[in-house]
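Quick review question:
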């Protein structure tokens, strides 16, 4: 007999991943939160600390949250994360492929190493993690994979060929796997965040969007000009989308845009 549903979330240390973990815990899931360096100083992020969340649950009688180290670009590491989840919780019902990286720049100067890393994390990571998890997911009553893509996977942006390419690919992989895994009862969907005030935007993309005076534009003012609804999305918005897709038993193969009207198709 299967117990309370179990989720494995990659890129769980901060930002979107941390919000997803918190929301899934609130919804009654047991969660394995996976990220690079799952213990120690590398988990102490300014925008959120999964270590603190794990500490609060350390003595939880319901044993809801555990953490593990994960490099989604390494097949053995992906297999180990799935094995750790099964060994501890006994099952896997939801895989959230959230780990992602960003870089940008003109094609003439963009490095091959940066290109390869973006695709290794954002696209190959989905392949390796899903491959490692398929057999476990196939045992679930309502198995689901949710991939974090982007509105940049639906419309290209200048100076972001690598990132956009990796997210277009993530949507393509999502659709293909949805077709392939449907007979095994595994649904595969993606979320496409718009502009979210996480480290990816605040530490990288906003500084790149400098004004003529060479000053970084103020975040809320900048996004209010781009988003029809006038405000940025939140990490909690993305967590809401993950929960919906995890439970929507007749929804598969979609790339759900959560962008306040910034991208419509």
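Suggested answer, residue by residue:
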């Amino acid at each position: 007999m299967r117990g309370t549903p179990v989720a494995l979330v990659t890129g769980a240390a901060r930002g979107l991943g941390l919000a997803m973990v918190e929301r899934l815990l609130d919804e009654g899931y047991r969660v394995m939160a996976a990220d690079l360096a799952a213990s120690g100083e590398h988990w102490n992020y300014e925008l959120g600390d999964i270590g603190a969340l794990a500490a609060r649950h350390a003595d939880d009688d319901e044993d809801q949250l555990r953490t593990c180290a994960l490099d989604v670009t390494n097949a053995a590491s992906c297999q180990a994360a799935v094995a750790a989840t099964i060994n501890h919780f006994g099952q896997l019902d939801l895989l959230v492929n959230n780990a992602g990286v960003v870089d940008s720049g003109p094609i003439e100067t963009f490095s091959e190493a940066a290109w390869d890393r973006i695709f290794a994390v954002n696209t190959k990571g989905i392949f390796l993690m899903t491959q490692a998890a398929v057999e476990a997911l196939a045992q679930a009553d309502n198995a689901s994979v949710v991939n974090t893509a982007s509105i940049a996977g639906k419309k290209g942006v200048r100076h972001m060929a690598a990132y956009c390419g990796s997210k277009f690919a993530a949507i393509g992989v999502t659709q293909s796997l949805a077709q392939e895994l449907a007979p095994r009862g595994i649904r595969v969907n993606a979320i496409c965040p718009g502009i979210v005030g996480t480290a990816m935007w605040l530490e990288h993309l906003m500084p790149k969007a400098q004004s003529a005076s060479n000053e970084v534009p103020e975040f809320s003012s900048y996004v209010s000009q781009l988003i029809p609804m006038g405000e940025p999305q939140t990490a909690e918005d993305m967590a809401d989308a993950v929960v919906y897709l995890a439970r929507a038993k007749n929804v598969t193969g979609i790339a759900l845009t959560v962008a306040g009207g910034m991208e419509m198709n």
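Why it works: Residues 120 and 191 are 19 Å apart (CA to CA). Residues 38-48, 209-213 have pLDDT under 50 and may be disordered.
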